[in-house]
Amino acid sequence: MSQEEAKLRESLKRLEESSRKIIETSGYTGEVRSIRMLQEMIKEQLRNATASHSTRPIR
Amino acid sequence: MRLLVIQLARFGDIFQTWPALAALRRNFPSAEIDILVRERFQAATSGLARLGVDVKIWPTAHLLEPIWRDGDEVQSLQWLSAHIESLSSRKYDRICNLSFSPLSSYLTQALSTGEAAVTGYTRFEDGYLAIPDDSSAYFYAQVGVDRTSRYHLCDVFAAVAGVELGSSDFNWCPSSIEKSGPVIVHLGASEGIKSYPAELWREVIQGIDEAGYRVRLVGSSQEKVLAEQATHDLTSHRIENRVGESSLQELCEWIQSAPVLVGADSAPVQIASLMETPVVNLSCQAVRFWETGPRVKGSVVLYRDSIRDIPPDDVVGSCLALLSQKAPTLPHFAWREDRYIAVNVQDDDFDWRLLQALYTQADFPEVPTGVSTDGIHRAWTQVTLGLQNLEVWRCEGPSQEIVANLAQVDAGLKPLENDRLVGPILRWFQTERLRIGPSDPQIILTRSTELFEQLATILMVYRSSGGVKRTQRLIEGLREYDLRVLNEEFPSFIADFESEIAHSTNVASWTSVLKAINSAIQRRDLIEVADLIETDLRVRLPSSAC
Fold first, then answer.
1. Which of B2, B28, B111, B524 has the most CB atoms less than 10 A away?
2. pTM here?
3. What three-state secondary structure class fits B114?
4. Which residues contact residue B518 at a Cβ distance below 8 angstroms, ignoring those fewer than 6 apart?
5. The complex's ipTM?
6. Given CB atoms, is A47 within the 8 Å cutoff of chain B?
7. Cβ pair B490, B391 in contact under 8 A
């Protein structure tokens, strides 16, 4: 794993934890939405990252 | 009016968005139309200037830079918020998200401030996926490499954008351009499994060259090795290897002056559709040519399960036929006006007709021989349970038990989602349930009940009328002593009935009839078999099963 990829994975973990905590206390907010967008952008960079449930690979 | 089209996919998808943008411009001549694309694929928007479409950039690399560099997601979030704010300041009246990705759905929600009309994936207020329009719901449920949709992506994009395409929307080639350039051969494809091997390309290139036509090889710099292998020891002056040498702009110019393009699933095929350049498209199981194939009249799709099985002679023959403006006679699919037609190919279109029945009110197709209806019966059992629980909910109010029971129904339906017959029906059903979204429990109950009832109605089509026709055909065939019916149709008929036993409490009364049928078959008394089916077996079974 490259250094960049490691940083992406670590950030992804932290972002997942942050969004989980905010949802527990305040529900789905604009902040959670931004965090999730960043999560998805990171997942797009990481092969083998679990794809979000809302789409399937199509091409 | 201000309109935003979000297209965060790759080159090919952006090119396939051009016709929808042209149609939007026709429909809204004075609107400000923006398209949002990833920075990396911005080059695919160069031709859009003539529509007056303003290109906005989604700068992935820039937004992720703080994380790559320092692991600083806080800075990335700040830059992301600033970028969204800048886009939001445009205050769009209408947003069409053509990306079908989780990222784009969150982005669409973030930009949907005020009264913006939204189509395409977005999010409900609780963060769950929201699919506001029917076309995107169709995409969610039925589009993909393992699916059976035959709507071309250009049409899907246009439908999500709420416009109808006309022939002028595909005409991006200046009328002064003559198709007098070399035949373009694009060697690469977006994935290895879609790529034609170098040794076969060599035969194709040689065949076109030997027929006296010029050939220009194109592709990205990653395809240079493939090009060198494919042209090894080919010394003809008519062969021009330009792989890795062209900009996207140059590639478009070459394609528009080419009489024919030969290639697998890739952006040049989609560019050719905009440049009125006919295509010989090499396709295989890993690709849905129905969705992304060429759409210039006369274009030819050569299809095999594996792309390696396409004979080079077929590719050359098709190319030469198009060059002499003749229709090839070998087996292929051809684009005619608004759809592909099968030419000398056995086209099993049951799955496609099933989708049309689900979405366009067309008649439900009869189940082909060999396709099991077992899934229908299994789904029926679950739907019955679902409706029973919804009725309890209606009478007694919601409870944990009902929620758990409905979850069990979903778990029971889940394995059937890949069933050839029931799968598309269940994907339609589950997508429509997903679209209900957060709401008053009474509204959720009403809509859920409607959907379960609609599902039951659809399942009944295959529990009843199809079976009636099939049983009647079987009986007639047996009476005419048709051994093909006995050997081919009868076994699957019996298999389906045996699956019915598994879901029926009324087994004892008719297993004896099955024994009598077997005995008659052993005596080769097909008339008696037909009589037993008609008079004994059918009356002992639930009417829905036959």
1. B111
2. 0.84
3. coil
4. none
5. 0.87
6. no
7. no
B173/B15 Cα distance (integer angstroms)? 14
For helices A3-26 and B60-70, give the axis angle rounded to 10 degrees: 100
User: Average pLDDT over chain B, rounded to whole?
Assistant: 90
What pLDDT, on a 0 to 100 scale, did the predictor assign at position B473? 78
Strands B332-336 and B339-343: antiparallel
Beta carbons within 10 angstroms of residue B410's beta carbon: 14
CB contact under 8 A, B127 and A32: yes
Contact between B57 and B31 (Cβ < 8 Å): no
**Which amino acid belongs to residue B282?**
L
Query: Is A59 near chain B, with CB under 8 Å?
Result: yes
Going by their DSSP bridges, the two strands B117-119 and B122-123 should be labelled as unpaired
User: pLDDT higher for B531 or B156?
Assistant: B156
Helix, strand or coil for residue B278?
coil
The reply to whether residue A30 touches residue B77, judged by beta carbons under 8 angstroms, is: no
- Could you report the per-residue pLDDT of B262-311, keeping only the tens digit for each? 999 889 999 999 999 999 999 999 899 999 999 999 899 999 999 999 99
- Cβ under 8 Å to A: B residues 366-425: none
Determine the distance from the C-alpha atom of residue B531 to the mean position of all C-alpha atoms in its chain, rounded to a whole number: 45
Average pLDDT over residues B313-326: 96
CB contact under 8 A, B123 and A33: yes
Q: Which of B429, B432, B423 is nearest to B147 (CA)?
A: B423
Identify which of B62, B83, B13, B21 has the alpha carbon closest to the alpha carbon of residue B41.
Answer: B13
Give contacts of B106 with chain A, Cβ < 8 Å: 33, 36-37, 40
Q: Residue B52 above 90 pLDDT?
A: yes
Q: Which of B71, B121, B126 sits opposite A10 (nearest CB)?
A: B71
The whole-angstrom separation of Cα B142 and Cα B150 is: 10
